[in-house]
Design a protein that fits this description.
Number of strands: 23
Radius of gyration: 24 Å
Strand content: 25-35%
CATH class of the largest domain: Alpha Beta
Number of helices: 14
Bound molecules: adenosine-5'-triphosphate, magnesium ion
Number of domains: 2
CATH superfamily of the largest domain: Bira Bifunctional Protein, Domain 2
Low-confidence stretches: none
Helix content: 25-40%
Mean pLDDT: 96
CATH architecture of the largest domain: 2-Layer Sandwich
């Protein structure tokens, strides 16, 4: 993509309404624009990262055997009256009346809707287990929307729901989600720690939240520092294996890690003092097992092996897709801007032409640009007339992990410069070698 043909409305000034770094950089890098309080338009650069995050989630859900689908954003109040949540949900629910005076609402979550789909179509234990999910816009009329996409009113969320015959099966689904979420966040360059949490309005007994440690996080967290040394890495796992999923769950949840909602001072004191940490965290996901809460209220039953009608065991599982952009930036930035992890970067690398108008430099940039595209990569080529300093500042702000800098002086010696955004280290090498190195980094060589 040539920058001269792209839409990247970067801001020089720091917007005064933004209190935390991720919000500031998302506005300055032209990723989002507020439409009204807690509601944002996703400009091209922000939209690209949103799509990358979404794709990682889809890939990891597929790996775990979960089925994608899509439900509407507007629901009828009737289903929520059946579950008893219409009145219980409170002021966070955006309630709408249609022209026929019917009560509707903008979906804050979808347990009722999916349970309705299930009960209309599934009647036998033979059709279980079943896990379906969607990535869809949600609305919660938050009392204090703030920090940009971190606490929006409209936000993008992955929500998944499992249906199982027995509690054991449903707990396996729970464990499977925990494992797949660990992989999902790591692919985004994040360490998200599963912590014992409180279930809130979703209900249920078993629940873990995934937290990214960051000073600006809204949750207070308490943990054993050993937990930050755990890595899921690229280990192969059989998601159908109860033992394997259980083992991962135990490995990642046996050490003390809790949010303030469930914190237990006496238990925490048993952690050796030098490993006790109190910090702040951003909740980027949560998993729940809630048994037959919705299936009993809404009559979602199946016939078991003996022909008895039994309510199914359920759980639900959420990832804050739009919040993740903020969380990733909070975890990965410096005073010049964002530093995208390679897994979610909007463009794979930047190309900066130091001397627009110089025929040789332009030809070299065009060639590098075309070579990267031919490899299936997505570079951003700054072909504008800005001064070199301004071009570097924009590249640093928008956070592309790699930059190839091309200028007449280097070209005389047959070299360009390849710079890492994270370390700031540069090396000079021939244009073809720079392209090869980028290809290797992204595994397309
Ligand atoms: P919170 O405690 O932050 O209000 P929650 O526990 O009510 O969140 P869940 O119902 O668990 O939220 O939703 C799943 C995920 O959706 C959360 O882990 C979070 O990452 C994200 N999320 C929830 N509310 C918002 C919001 N207002 N803006 C952006 N993301 C949100
Ligand atoms: Mg939650």
């Amino acid at each position: 993509m040539r920058l001269s043909r792209y839409f990247l409305p970067v801001l020089k000034e720091t917007p005064s309404e933004a209190q935390i770094v991720s919000h500031r950089y998302m506005l300055r890098a032209g990723m989002i624009k507020q439409a009204s309080a807690g509601i944002y338009s996703w400009l091209p650069l922000g939209f690209k990262v949103l799509r990358k995050i979404e794709n990682i989630i889809h890939e990891e859900q597929a790996r775990a055997g979960h089925i994608p689908m899509l439900m509407p954003t507007i629901q009828s109040a009737d289903l929520w009256r059946e579950s008893g949540r219409y009145d219980a949900y409170g002021a966070e629910m955006l309630r709408i009346t249609d022209r026929h005076d019917r009560d509707m609402l903008f979906t804050p979550t979808a347990e009722e809707l999916i349970t309705d789909i299930f009960r209309a179509n599934v009647s036998s234990y033979r059709d279980l287990p079943l896990t379906m999910y969607q990535i869809q816009w949600k609305f919660r009329d938050e009392i204090r929307p703030r920090f940009g996409v971190m606490r929006g009113r409209e936000f993008y969320m992955k929500d998944g729901y499992n249906f199982d015959l027995t509690k054991e099966d449903a707990l396996h689904a729970y464990n499977r989600h925990l494992v797949s979420y660990l992989r999902t966040y790591e692919r985004m360059g994040l360490q998200a720690i599963p912590m014992r949490a409180d279930s809130g309005p979703i209900g249920g007994d078993d629940t873990h939240e995934f937290l990214v440690l960051a000073e600006t996080g809204e949750s207070e967290v308490f943990y054993d520092s050993e937990i930050t040394e755990l890595k899921f890495g690229d280990r192969e796992i059989d998601y159908d294996s109860v033992e394997q999923c259980q083992a991962v769950l135990e490995e990642f949840t046996s050490r003390y890690a809790r949010t303030d909602e469930t914190h237990d001072e006496a238990l925490f004191d048993q952690v050796p003092e030098e490993r006790r940490r109190t910090a702040r965290g951003i909740e980027v996901g949560q998993i729940f097992y809630f048994g037959t809460k919705y299936s009993e209220a809404m009559g979602a039953t199946v016939s078991d092996k003996d022909g008895n009608q039994v309510p199914v065991h359920m759980g639900s599982h959420g990832i804050g897709v739009s919040r993740l952009l903020g969380a990733i930036i909070e975890a990965s930035h410096d005073d010049r801007g964002i530093i995208w992890p390679e897994g979610v970067t909007p463009f794979h690398c930047g190309i900066v032409n130091l001397k627009t108008g110089d025929a040789e430099a332009e030809a070299a940039c065009d060639k590098i640009h075309a070579a990267l595209i031919a490899l299936g990569l997505d570079p951003l080529y700054d072909d504008t007339n800005e001064r070199a300093g301004a071009k570097f500042a924009t590249m640093d702000l928008i956070g592309l992990p790699w930059r190839i800098t091309v200028g007449p002086r280097g070209l005389k010696n047959g070299v360009v410069e390849l710079t890492s955004r994270r370390t700031g280290e540069s090396e000079e090498l021939p244009p073809e070698a720079a392209v090869a190195k980028i290809a290797e980094i992204y595994g397309v060589a």
